[in-house]
Amino acid sequence: MLQAVAGSLSYRTIWLSDIHLGDRHCKADYLLEFLGAIRCETLFLVGDIIDLWSLSNRWHWPAQHSAVLRRVLELADGGTRVVFVPGNHDELIRDFVGNAFGKIAIERQAVHVSATGKRLLITHGDEFESWIRCSAFTRLLGTASYAALLRLNRAYNRWRSWRGKPYWSLATYVKHRVANARRAIDSFEQAASAHAREHDFDGIVCGHIHHPSQREIDGILYCNDGDWVENCTALAENAEGVLELLHWPRLRAHGAGLRAANDHEAATAAAAAATR
Q1: What domains does the chain contain, in order, with CATH numbers?
Q2: How far apart are CA 240 and CA 12, in angstroms?
Q3: Of the candidates 109, 140, 102, 137, which has an alpha carbon nearest to the alpha carbon of residue 124?
Q4: Mind listing the pLDDT tens digit of every residue in the chain (276 residues)?
Q5: Sheet of strand 104-106: strand arrangement
Q6: How many CB atoms neighbour CB 179 within 10 A?
């Protein structure tokens, strides 16, 4: 499956965030596939890579989570520049800002200049929480509801897998249809864009809210690379400086389709040869 897409996943820059290693909802299996398929000059890890909150409540660390870390280290050792910008779920690592873990630099924020010359601020995004216009009680209820939604999402996709259907985020579908969630997302995006404008950046790349997005807000390029809990997405920049969101479940489904078509073509050719 991966051979059909691996050759096309070569980029100048890739951004990943909200992986949440240590949380049972982390889609480490999909992320391992993605990391095995990509090649890039620079990899930004934009926070919440390790979910220290979840680990402090309940230990969950399967072998796949260790494999994800090993793959990132392999990329760094292989020449990829890796920059880790910690988020709120791994905020303890912010104490090590300015240092490096092996060949992985740890920064509070980072600045990226695209191939087209755009200056992009890289930050996790939890600093914009106060801009989301809802009470602490509403946020608490939202967290509880979100956890329940993720459990339902996981059960639903087990059923889809059993039926031979590709991954589909029920959680994202529901969030897009809840008015309070849409308002909170819009407030966050406006706050992030305003922050970038105030600091003379052309755009901002962040994570935090598990909502992949790429759009222009009042002349500022706003990008959110999504997450690997419900969406399985990344942001990528190609050699020409064009940015795009990568949705791994769609890419892998496309790869499976290409492989099936190739297998069918090969089988047809073999059958034709056998009848000559």
Answers
A1: 3-268 (3.60.21.10)
A2: 9
A3: 109
A4: 343 454 468 999 999 999 999 999 999 999 999 999 999 999 999 999 999 999 999 999 999 999 999 999 999 999 999 999 999 999 999 999 999 999 999 999 999 999 999 999 999 999 998 777 554 434 544 566 667 776 776 776 677 667 777 776 666 666 667 667 788 889 999 999 999 999 999 999 999 999 999 999 999 999 999 999 989 999 999 999 999 999 999 998 876 533 433 443 443 344 445 545
A5: 100-101, 104-106, 81-84, 39-45, 10-16, 233-237, 243-247
A6: 7
In the DSSP assignment, the letter for residue 221 is: E
The C-alpha atoms of residue 260 and residue 254 are separated, in whole angstroms, by: 10
**Token pair listed for 235:** 């942001």
- Confirm if 166 and 81 have CB atoms less than 8 A apart: no
Q: Is 162 helix (H, G, I), strand (E, B) or coil?
A: helix
**CB within 8 Å of 9: residues ≥ 6 apart:** 34, 37, 38, 39, 246, 251
Q: Cα angle vertex 237, ends 236, 238, to 5°?
A: 120
Q: What is the C-alpha to C-alpha distance for residues 219 and 198, in angstroms, rounded to an integer? A: 12
Q: Cβ contacts of residue 230 below 8 Å, gap of 6+?
A: 25, 150, 153, 169, 171, 172, 210
Q: What is the Cα 39 distance to its own chain's centre?
A: 16
Burial tier of 233 (Cβ tally within 10 Å: 0-12, 13-18, 19+): buried
- Residue partners of 18: CB distance under 8 A and separation at least 6: 46, 47, 48, 87, 207, 208, 210, 226, 227, 228, 229
Q: 């994570």: which residue's tokens?
A: 207
